[in-house]
């Protein structure tokens, strides 16, 4: 099928490359001429493992192309995927200006029946809004609007697209459903579940899923705080919880709170959607409040580990992206942590394998280093903020010698407290009361 994917951000680029690999002829469209020129030269604007190879493969095989000609792409396509940004406004609601602009452009250039698919995460009712725009400003051609939310995890997006847990299709007519099944035909042989529903339900599924996962993360972070107060170990508590098949082990890792492009934006939007319909989504409102509190508690944890005052001290921060295997700094916990430490008079040295360029646009007054060991040189405290694999096997003797004081604050619970004590470190982690785990216990 001839497909146009409008938007070459994270979702659009992965979607375009993935759909091309399924055998469709895909053109990815963006108004940013520099980005399109770079993509034509094989330069990928984001870091996502495997994406460069997937793009290159499908470009070379003639199924994937890039253009700034939006009108031409619309007219050539049978299906048009909208994958533009929906950033949060100040009140937490989703900004739909780009989606609306694309809908009006599609309406203007339609030259036959089109399937319009919202891939962007959009509030409930957006599909109907697009239908009204097409009906009001179009040229009489038929358009079917479908919702096909993405469930891509940064760092494993290719696998998530090629072998998803499910494919959600929200549509109001049978033709649209059949076209969507044709686009995703290779997934039928893998027996991937297809959830076929109306547009409103599909739009809500994405928000409900992310809201629940954000709640799960926030819950274990609150449990971690209680663990520290009562002398329990959050790692063992999480294992005990996760072995319950009704709960499961995923998203039960205590840490400095959730961040990234989805959870903060989508939970805020979910709360806003509820308010607009006259309802207070109390759980989600609490999740947002607690997640902010967790990040501030991490600042206090670092200050206390430094002796109660970081003024004039140097803090080494390993990890800036909100999670490993991405360069995404959006709502990364590292941002409020660095801000909080700087407000208390600390100097920051930092290193991340992929996110330093993005971090430079946020913090100019941070010393960026070439590796972990250069980062800790002369620092008073080492903070592990993102659990990149290379931080799991640090040469601890070298780290201890480089630090002014052997103080480590491990916000991702990468290391074992007993080992760190034996290595001579003053070690602080999250939710473990810094006690060694008892092996062999559930």
Summarize the SSE layout with pairings:
Blueprint: E1 2-6, H1 10-21, E2 25-29, H2 33-40, H3 51-60, E3 64-67, H4 70-76, E4 79-82, H5 97-109, E5 114-118, H6 126-137, E6 143-147, H7 157-162, E7 167-171, H8 174-183, H9 186-189, E8 194-197, H10 199-230, H11 234-242, H12 263-276, H13 282-305, E9 314-318, H14 334-343, E10 347-351, H15 356-360, E11 367-368, H16 372-376, E12 381-384, H17 396-402, E13 407-410, H18 417-422, E14 426-428
Parallel strand pairs: 1-2, 1-4, 2-3, 4-5, 5-6, 7-8, 9-10, 9-12, 10-11, 12-13, 13-14
Antiparallel strand pairs: 6-7
Structure characterization notes:
Residues 436-442 have low confidence and may be disordered. The longest helix has 32 residues, at 199-230. Helix 5 (97-109) runs parallel beside helix 6, helix 12 (263-276) runs antiparallel to helix 13 and helix 13 crosses helix 14 (334-343). Strands 3-2-1-4-5-6-7-8 form an eight-stranded mixed sheet, with helices on both faces. A six-stranded parallel sheet has the order 11-10-9-12-13-14. The radius of gyration is 24 Å and the shape is elongated. The protein has helices at 10-21, 33-40, 51-60, 70-76, 97-109, 126-137, 157-162, 174-183, 186-189, 199-230, 234-242, 263-276, 282-305, 334-343, 356-360, 372-376, 396-402, 417-422; strands at residues 2-6, 25-29, 64-67, 79-82, 114-118, 143-147, 167-171, 194-197, 314-318, 347-351, 367-368, 381-384, 407-410, 426-428. 44% of the residues lie in helices and 14% in strands. It folds into two domains: 2-197, 3-Layer(aba) Sandwich (Rossmann fold), CATH 3.40.50.720; 209-428, NAD(P)-binding Rossmann-like Domain (Rossmann fold, 3-Layer(aba) Sandwich), CATH 3.40.50.720. It is α/β, with parallel strands linked by helices.
